[in-house]
Amino acid sequence: MSISRQSAIPVSSPSSRLKPLPLAVHLALTSALLAAAIVPSMAWSQTVQSPVTTLEATTVTGEASIATPSAAPYAGGQVARGGQLGVLGNIDNMDAPFVVTSFTSKLIEDQQARTLGDVVKNDPSIQVGNGFGNSAETFSIRGFALNNDDLSFNGLYGILPRQVLPTQMIERVEVFKGANAFLNGAAPGGSGLGGSINIQPKRAGEDPLTRATIDYTSDSQVGGGVDIGRRWGTDNKFGIRVNAAHRDGETSVDDENQRLTVGTVGLDFRGEQLRVSLDAGYQKYRYSQPRPTISVIGTDVPSAPSTRTNYGQPWTFSELESTFGVVRAEYDFNNNWMGYAAAGLSHDHESGDYGTPNVNGSGIGTVSRLTVPYERDSATGEVGLRGQFRIGAIGHRVNAAVSASRIKQATAYEFATGGAVDINNPSYIPRPVALFPAQGNLSDPGVTDRRRLYSFALSDTLSFLDDRVLFTAGVRRQTLKQDAFGYDGVQTAAYNDSVWTPVFGVVVKPLDYMSLYANHIEGLTAGDSAPTEAVNVGTTLAPYRTKQTEVGLKLDFGTVGGNVGVFQIEKPEAYTDAVTRVFGRAGEQRNRGIELNVYGEATRGLRLLGGITLMDPELRDTEVASQNGNDAIGVPRYQAVMGAEWDVPYVNGLTLQAYAQRRGSQYINADNSAKIPAWNRFDLGARYATKIDNRNVVWRAGVDNVTDKQYWSTVGNDFGQITQGRGRIYKLSMSVDF
Fold first, then answer.
1. What number of other Cβ atoms are within 10 A of residue 232's Cβ?
2. Residue 442 belongs to a domain
3. What domain range includes position 449?
4. Is the pLDDT score of 589 beyond 60?
5. pTM of the predicted model, to two decimals?
6. What CATH number should be reported for the domain holding residue 371?
7. Are the beta carbons of 218 and 705 closer than 8 angstroms?
8. 570: which residues sit within 8 A by CB, 6+ positions away?
9. Helix (H) / strand (E) containing 31
10. Of all helices (H) and strands (E), which one includes residue 184?
11. CB 421, CB 367: distance < 8 Å
């Protein structure tokens, strides 16, 4: 049974290192980087910033301390200058041999992003879809699945709520591109082989904050929330940040309802040497009659129905409840050595009736009922040491860390055959009655899976020639253990294996505004177990090692920056041989791509964020010879996004927004006999920031999918199910600082 696949470098001062160039050079750079993307043409204006709260830098003693703070926002405030790279800690983009994009809370607020999926739509390497049969947000980075189970929270896996993550508590969304087993360890859910997402929580700023927000989302979703932050004590050493929100009502899809309740608290202490934080939260989602993904029978894909059509059955629902918390401590022994430790706990409880239509090219087929209760209990932690020193002309920044996690899952299910369905003209059937007993106890599910992951990591980043050449080498020893149990409580499989995963990275900075980088890094997941139809049933394969090689260029001119990179990721596959019936390794998925990103303030009052990814997702040496050379399931050959913000001249406080997305076609099967077509989407928005009675007030309005386009947005990597894109959605909000 395999792990499930669901979900001494000185700290540079940007002001001293980055030297702004003339406006003409800025615009030339932007034009070159965006040659293949869509760039709105807008004029110069004076910048009017709306009130925002930025992540506070960690207070450290001495110059060039090993305790590097979180990266400052980049020009325009939509992304940060760097991010947290697992065991390597916080690193500036220009010093990192990898690509990381950190979306800020300013972007989240200004785009009225309701969930994590709304945030990462700004990245040209990420797709967002829904889970198989449920309402979970699933992600794909560089063509490989990242399930919501495998997001990390302040560096720890298995803590965040499953399936859907609202944005109220988020300060930063840090997207790492590529395999990352060394940086973060193997993801417990077995996904994340093409990239990872880390969530940084909000912290209290230096200034008191009391913000109330009310919002509306079509058709009748109404919500409100509060964001409160305070610091106190000598030198403001103590801080608290509280976020709470509730939203309820019908969505833009007929008869589909969503209800959310979320509350989080972040406490922190900032001493001269000791820093401690505690983040805890509770959230509950309820989806009633959600529109599901569909599975296609045959080789003809039906046209997407009307954006308002709901082919979900009235008896379908999904209820998700989560409680979680993380405590983290850092201690500076001196300016050059620090230790850190973190621990987290979470409990998830889910229940639902699910119905995924299986339809032909006309949209006609059948739907059945699957009832699944699910519980997850997670405990995870890490301890590490970080230091910097010099030996002659060579600087060293060393890291050593130990991590461990334990995850227990309990589930049961009941299946009932349903009836006919037409996704274009839905007819609703009574809740199907099961003809066979449930597997397990639906009201009190038993344990079906226990996972334990342990690892040790060690690395050294060497710096040469006044830190213009940086070389990183490291290795992680990862142990994966899993015990699987049947619904009767009898153990059915056991897994215990260990593997070394290395990393090599180099950065060369020939100019102050240029970094050349290269890396080799691996991903890791447990090997699959032979299915019942195989002659070696129950045999578990060795862990899969996904290998990535990448080279690229980063440019940073202080107000506009970007990167272009070429990468290759190879992921092993396994099949049951059609003749011998032996289950084993056979073939691989090789994704080769070119990725281009741009961000920043191209000229005063005009902010850009977006890019393009070109991909060749090839299947190689597969069990079926006719599939060799075909495209992998659910990976478009290209996707491009571009967002722009423009501060309107002579209207103080008014900002206009535009967003465009283009995605290529995607195959739904390995035979490449059926695919969903390419599509475009356009979003518009505006905000107006002012003061009323000496209080900051911001109004925001937005329209997603302005043309109300009907389209299939994504194909699931594992099962080939397809998600329909949302139609036209209106968003309104008002926030007031008291």
1. 11
2. yes
3. 14-244+251-737
4. yes
5. 0.89
6. 2.40.170.20
7. no
8. 546, 547, 548, 588, 589, 590
9. helix 23-33
10. helix 181-184
11. yes
